[in-house]
Amino acid sequence: xxxxxxxxxxxxxxxxxxxxxxxxxxTDDSAKHAGHAGAQPGGETHYSVKIxxxxxxxxxxxQIQRSVMMVLQPEFDTGLHALAIKAAAP
Length: 90
Prior knowledge:
Elements: H1 7-19, E1 23-28, E2 46-52, H2 61-71, H3 73-77, E3 82-88
Parallel strand pairs: 2-3
Antiparallel strand pairs: 1-2
């Protein structure tokens, strides 16, 4: 299956594959950060994620955050600058 070309779709796909969430929303907040550090003219640099998954059961908040960041490391390596994460087990 071809990889999506836009970052929002890639983030959604990677998190879905990794955590099989019961709830997932990904929001591109880049426009709110225009002119700030890390912002690019084309956007796709600042995102918010809300994810609820049974995969997070028994994990601390820090462990959950790290697991999400690890899955999205390729996006950080290619221009993702900031990610606000709200994550929990159901």
